């Protein structure tokens, strides 16, 4: 069998190997030697001019490799040009004339194996080569070691590969010559057999990676590589975004289940885009994904509970159920079956025509998705019909948990709504400055005098630039890579100020425990030491400048990016951010303003539906995208129909638990006191945004420990009620439950 080529994508040293490796390529002519030397010099020169970009060739008789990596915006331009030179260089002919049949690739992450690397290497170098198999060891810190092990295993026909003392799993690899057995990685990893849709790579590509090592942008890189016809031969956790893309674009055979926690990724393949249409004929559908964990569920036991975690305004977690307090503590104690669903038009649960589908992104449609998933679980999981279901969520999904209880009381026995901003959505929040006022108070408790430092930093920025920052000033003085993304110089300053508000909002939500290790403490320290420019530098995470597009929702229909979406605490990034912008434009209107000292530490900015929100939504989505952008009553409609305001809730429902954190700005729009004997609120003074749902730790505060005990006791009391007690309770309400 031909020896494999070893393609190493990693942070190797350019100077040590570049010239030496290239010179080791066998050559039979002076012309080729000159071409090699010219390419080597060119690569070396480009490497030093580009700074973080580097490119190295390492070629030898036994193995040949291309080593690539990048660290800046110069990646695509340089690599396209350099790879084009490779196509015309001796390496192209060297590969084409070799007996190459196997390619082994090792990469620390897909960040190092970006789209241009996979696509252009394949297009330029392997275009005319009949490669039988490609093995990709991706994500593991020991990826090179593993790749060399695969290399050795293939060469020696040795069926067992040892790694760090563990016997690794055995997987099947389909090749032209029939079925071959080899081993790849430990069972903590995922093995994927990938058949590329390019004719010149017509056989098997194996992708092996450690999900814990993937970076947030890695899935985008893999999707852009256009791998197709995936066969999953190993059981473990697969990121939902990758799962969905493969399901939509490829012929997929899937059996994904973790042997360690019995948590598998499932989906409803044909979820209706419009649940409420009575039209005949074919209706548009799309897949909706969810995690289903049976780790602590035993169908033979009498008592059981379904913990249904509502998906919110973000993708489904990539490594299983997000909230350990639910999936571990509560589920273990109550024979729990745990579901965590993904919200429509977020993450991987997106119809093919995203923009055209936005009018179907509503609370009502989403609740029907959840009802469908829950009903499907009751019908397909043995013994599940006897379990009572608790709807659970944090933040917006906490509001959805309440709404699920209200709209589908036969399916949902109780609701646990953590950090739910329902009083914003019912338009009951008493003060539109409450959110940032609470955030400011919390920042001063966590880092004394934080607000004074922030106010001073904003004043310094205003004194320096007045009301306008030019593109040039933003680049040269504030280290913003691409201020042009905001569309106009008139908008740059306000957009940057809004990004700072959002950064503090994100830090506030994550600041549990509220100590010197919290994100709020660190952000306050940054402002005190480096001013507002220090915030931008911290957001850049080591890059020379801040690429604002990485922190913002997808652009509007005119290609303009904005931090000023319908949610003035931040909408999120990319497509998920655009989806949330749509929801806060249409149904979930949040009146959140800043007023400056003494109310809060931010520059004044007054939120107005009539003067700002309507214009923003029309600009972002088009005047015809939603017919009611100018409807002054749209923000009241859900509550007018359903009655989730504090006065109405006790009359129409029961068994709803609200939990809030004392340092969380969203508490300004939350239910913070008991509304009845069975509509109960718990306040955790040290808590942040649904922080009680995290796994217990040695750093937990006493009030957090007590709150978790209280939450469990209340839910146990409700779930243990007899049918007779439930019927007696129902008589007290205007609407039977």
Kindly describe this structure.
The structure is a single chain. This protein has three domains: about 5-250, no CATH class; about 265-420, Rossmann fold; about 435-630, no CATH class. Helices cover about 40% and strands about 15% of the residues. It contains 24 helices and 20 strands. Strands 13-14-16-15-17-18-19-20 form an eight-stranded mixed sheet, sandwiched between helices. Helix 17 packs antiparallel against helix 18. Residues about 1-30, about 40-240 and about 250-260 have low confidence and may be disordered.
How can the largest sheet be summarized? 8 strands, mixed
- Number of separate structural domains: 3
Instruction: For the largest sheet, list the strands in their spatial order.
Output: 13-14-16-15-17-18-19-20
Contiguous helical run count? 24
| Shape, principal axes of CA atoms | globular
Q: What portion of residues belong to β-strands?
A: 15-25%
Low-confidence stretches: 1-29, 38-239, 249-260
Number of strands: 20
Rg, Cα atoms, Å: 28 Å
Rounded average pLDDT: 71
Given the helix and strand composition, which structural class is it? alpha/beta
What's the end-to-end separation, in Å? Answer: 70 Å
| Helix percentage | 25-40%
């Amino acid at each position: 069998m031909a020896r494999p080529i070893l393609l190493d994508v990693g942070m190797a040293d350019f100077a040590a190997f570049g010239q030496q490796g290239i010179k080791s390529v066998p050559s039979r002519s002076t012309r080729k030697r000159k071409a090699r030397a010219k390419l080597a010099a060119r690569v070396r020169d480009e490497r030093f001019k580009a700074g973080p970009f580097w490119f190295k060739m390492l070629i030898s008789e036994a193995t040949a490799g291309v080593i690539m990596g990048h660290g800046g915006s110069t990646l695509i331009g340089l690599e396209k040009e350099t790879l084009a030179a490779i196509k015309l260089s001796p390496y192209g002919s060297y590969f084409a004339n070799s007996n190459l049949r196997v390619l082994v690739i090792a990469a620390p992450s897909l960040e190092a194996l970006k789209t241009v690397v996979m696509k252009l290497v394949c297009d330029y170098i392997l275009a005319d080569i009949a490669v039988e198999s490609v093995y990709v060891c991706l994500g593991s810190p020991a990826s090179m070691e593993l790749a060399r092990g695969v290399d050795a295993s293939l060469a020696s026909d040795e069926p067992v590969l040892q790694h760090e003392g563990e016997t690794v799993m055995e997987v099947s690899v389909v090749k032209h010559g029939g079925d071959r057995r080899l081993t790849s990685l430990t069972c903590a990893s995922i093995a994927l057999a990938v058949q590329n849709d390019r004719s010149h790579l017509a056989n098997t590509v194996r992708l092996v990676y450690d999900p814990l090592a993937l970076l947030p942008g890695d899935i985008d890189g893999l999707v852009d590589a256009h791998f197709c016809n995936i066969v999953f031969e190993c059981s473990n956790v697969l990121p939902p975004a990758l799962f969905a893309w493969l399901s939509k674009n490829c012929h997929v055979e899937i059996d994904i289940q973790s042997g360690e926690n019995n948590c598998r990724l499932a989906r409803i393949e044909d979820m209706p885009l419009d649940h409420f249409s009575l039209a005949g004929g074919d209706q548009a559908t799309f897949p909706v994904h969810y995690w289903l964990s049976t780790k602590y569920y035993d169908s033979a036991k009498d008592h059981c509970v379904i913990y249904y975690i509502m998906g919110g305004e973000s993708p489904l977690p990539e490594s299983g159920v997000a909230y350990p307090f639910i999936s571990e503590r509560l589920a273990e104690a109550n024979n729990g079956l745990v579901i965590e669903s993904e919200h429509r038009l977020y993450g991987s649960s997106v119809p093919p025509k995203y923009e055209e589908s936005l009018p179907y992104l509503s609370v009502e449609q989403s609740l029907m998705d959840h009802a469908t998933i829950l009903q499907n679980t009751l019908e397909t999981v043995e013994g599940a019909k006897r379990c009572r279901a608790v709807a659970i969520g944090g933040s917006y999904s906490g509001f959805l948990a309440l709404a699920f209880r209200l709209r589908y009381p036969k399916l949902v026995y109780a609701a646990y709504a953590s950090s739910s901003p329902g009083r914003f959505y019912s338009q009951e929040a008493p003060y539109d400055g409450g959110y940032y006022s609470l955030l400011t108070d919390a920042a001063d408790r966590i880092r004394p005098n934080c607000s004074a430092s922030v106010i001073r930093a904003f004043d310094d920025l205003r004194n320096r630039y007045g009301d306008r920052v030019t593109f040039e000033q933003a680049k040269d003085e504030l280290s913003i890579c691409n201020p042009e993304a905001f569309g106009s110089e008139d908008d740059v300053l306000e957009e940057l100020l809004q990004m700072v508000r959002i950064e503090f909002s994100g830090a506030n939500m994550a600041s549990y425990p509220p100590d010197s290790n919290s994100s709020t403490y660190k952000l306050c320290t940054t402002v005190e030491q480096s001013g507002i420019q220090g915030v931008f530098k911290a957001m850049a995470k080591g890059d020379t400048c801040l690429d604002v597009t990485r922190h913002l929702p997808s652009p509007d229909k005119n290609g303009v990016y904005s931090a000023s979406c319908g949610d003035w605490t931040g909408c999120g990034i990319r497509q998920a951010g655009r989806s949330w912008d749509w929801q806060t434009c249409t149904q979930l209107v949040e009146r959140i303003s800043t007023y400056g000292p003494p109310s809060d530490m931010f520059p004044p900015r007054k939120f107005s539906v009539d003067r700002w929100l309507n214009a923003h939504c029309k600009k972002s989505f088009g005047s015809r995208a939603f017919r009611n952008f100018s409807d002054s009553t749209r923000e009241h409609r859900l509550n007018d129909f359903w009655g989730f305001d504090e006065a109405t809730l006790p009359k129409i429902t029961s068994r709803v638990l609200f939990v809030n954190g004392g340092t969380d700005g969203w508490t300004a729009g939350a239910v913070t006191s008991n509304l009845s004997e069975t509509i109960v609120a718990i306040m955790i003074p040290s808590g942040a945004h649904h922080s009680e749902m995290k796994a217990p730790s040695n750093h937990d505060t006493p009030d957090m420990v007590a709150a978790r005990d209280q939450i469990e006791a209340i839910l146990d009391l409700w779930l243990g009620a007899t049918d007779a007690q439930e019927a007696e309770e129902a008589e007290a309400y205007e609407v039977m439950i």
